[in-house]
Design goal:
It contains 15 helices and two strands. By secondary structure, it is an all-alpha fold. The protein binds geranylgeranyl diphosphate.
């Protein structure tokens, strides 16, 4: 099977796993359930749950009962971040994942509430891993995974990065501050994905630290490619309007260095990530191919 065929199959399997945790659209608060499902089911690349599952496998994990709730939880947190990022007070975007953004479809109030709801529901979902745990060791691994998830999604992770990003929109930014924003805003959830996969497979602190560095490089490369696609792609391919960074007067790797140099940086960071992965036994794994495939992604 080619990499693309394997990828398609794996994404389909991830979709089914996530769907199983989504709320039924019923009750007086039905609208918020519809808005949550609308945004999650719009179909993203599912990169974070995929990275989680592939890191888990690479490190010898087999029993997926703790892993699956965390895969769904992380995709819910990622989706909430997109729903809020698209709001008028943030990037004010009209399209996401090939359809109208959640706030455009359900109103700004429901956009805010659906994002809040997804964040909270993510932790309810992750909690299901504790119900599935059958012994002390599994409970310990689930607790480690939960602590990674909460930290990386919060003020010392994704939200922290978003705060600096929002505050500095329209202002010139030095490279070190831009790197901070990228590491936190985008890198943190990629780190969460791979570290949780590792923690659930029973990786020790030293291995988790190495995974964090691999994920950081992968996350930085991913965000720089996102900058490039924002100026080179189209709404049809990307599923969201392009030139969003220009509209929001954001400093990016493209505005600082130009497309070619930014692309070189993506390559460099991805290859560094892969050589660190090899040290952990990741040579010729699907995970390695996945990280490298992001260099030339189209969306
Ligand atoms: C707390 C009010 C409030 C808002 C939070 C934290 C936050 C808003 C937004 C996070 C920042 C953000 C959206 C970073 C961008 C990271 C990024 C490149 C996202 C796109 O990820 P893809 O390409 O998306 O994996 P798909 O749709 O494929 O899942």
């Amino acid at each position: 099977m080619s990499f693309e065929e394997q990828m398609q199959q794996k994404v389909h399997e991830v979709e089914l796993k996530i769907q199983a945790f989504l709320p039924a659209e019923e009750g007086f608060q039905k609208t918020v359930f519809e808005a949550m499902n609308y945004s999650v089911l719009a179909g993203g690349k599912r990169l974070r749950p995929l990275l989680m599952a592939e890191t888990f496998k690479m490190l010898g994990g087999t029993d997926e009962k703790l892993l699956i709730p965390f895969m769904a939880a992380l995709e819910m947190i990622h989706t909430y971040s997109l729903v809020h990022d698209d709001l008028p007070a943030m990037d004010n975007d009209e399209y996401r994942r090939g359809r109208k953004t959640t706030w455009m479809t359900f109103g700004e109030d429901m956009g805010i509430l659906a994002g809040d709801a997804l964040l909270n529901f993510a932790f309810e979902t992750a909690g299901k891993a504790f119900d599935a745990a059958e012994n002390e060791e599994e409970l310990r691994r689930a607790a480690k995974a939960l602590s990674i998830l909460s930290k990386k999604a919060g003020v010392y992770g994704m939200i922290g990065g978003q705060v600096v990003d929002v505050q500095l929109s329209g202002k010139p930014i030095e490279k070190d501050v831009l790197d901070f924003i990228y590491a936190m805003k985008t890198g943190a959830l990629i780190e969460a994905a791979m570290m949780i996969g590792g923690a659930l497979a029973g990786a020790d602190a030293q291995v988790l630290q190495k995974i964090e560095s691999i994920a950081l490089k992968t996350g930085l490369a991913f965000q720089i490619e996102d900058d490039i696609l924002d100026v080179t792609s189209t709404l049809e391919v990307l599923g969201k309007l392009t030139h969003s960074d220009e509209k929001n007067e954001k400093t990016t790797y493209v505005t600082l260095y130009g497309i070619e140099k930014a692309q070189e940086e993506v390559k460099q960071l991805s290859h560094e990530a892969v050589s660190l992965l090899d040290e952990l036994g990741g040579r010729d794994t699907f995970l390695e191919a996945l990280i490298l495939s992001l260099i030339h992604r189209k969306k």
